[in-house]
UniProtKB/TrEMBL annotation:
Gene3D superfamilies: Protein of unknown function (DUF541), domain 1, Protein of unknown function (DUF541), domain 2. One of its GO terms (biological process) is DNA damage response. This is DUF541 domain-containing protein. Coiled coil: none annotated.
Length: 206
């Protein structure tokens, strides 16, 4: 049986976000599948063109989901099919949300839905490195304290396992027709983005 002590240390680091991700949907209802698909594709293309006109690159706009399904209708009423595309828009202009939304609304009108927006950090590698350092330092301090209480001296590390989590900035769900929103009235303020690393460390006795 392996002797020693196993402890868990955690480290959390926060920083200002540098990217904004906006989730938009484009939907259209038509009496048949072909019309629903064609119309939603046309309106999605218009939204993409409008966003590109605001300076976004093609890589900044991605299709995340495509759906076509028959809507439930009361018996005896005509069939209807809903087509939808969901787009994720990424921008480093953290204050330009209103301009992007207005451009998309102008292109698609009430067919546009605003699903959510989220501030994030694009490259988390430096944050993770610092969080690991803090987590290991805490684990070492705990191990030293427990070894002293048990009458031992702390030895070498024999095993480490890591878990990682991050808290995106203000992921705000805003599902609904974008036309119903006044973009200028939506107050979005970036806070801090946090990453947390937990390390389970096993130390042998010296």
């Amino acid at each position: 049986m392996e002797t020693g002590v196993t402890v868990v240390g955690s480290g959390q680091v926060s920083t200002a976000p540098d990217v904004l991700r906006v989730s938009l949907s484009v939907e259209h209802v038509a009496p048949d599948v072909a019309a629903a698909v064609a119309q939603v594709a046309e309106r999605t293309d218009a939204v993409i063109a409008a966003l590109r006109g605001q300076g976004l690159e093609a890589d900044d706009i991605n299709t995340t989901t495509v759906n076509v399904y028959q809507e439930y209708r009361e018996p005896g009423t005509a069939a209807a099919f809903r087509g939808s595309h969901q787009l994720t828009v990424t921008t480093k202009d953290l204050t330009g949300f209103g301009t992007l939304l207005n451009a998309a609304v102008d292109a698609a009108g009430n067919s546009l839905g605003l699903q959510s927006l989220q501030f994030d950090v694009q490259d988390k590698s430096a944050l993770l490195t610092r969080a690991r350092e803090l987590a290991f330092r805490q684990a070492q301090e705990k191990g030293t304290e427990l070894a002293h209480l048990a009458g031992y001296s702390l030895g070498s590390v024999t095993a480490i396992s890591e878990t990682y989590s991050h808290a995106p900035i203000r992921e705000v769900a805003m599902a609904g027709a974008a036309k119903a929103f006044d973009a200028a009235a939506i107050n979005i303020t970036p806070g801090d983005h946090s990453v947390e690393v937990s390390l389970e460390v096993h130390f042998s006795w010296a």
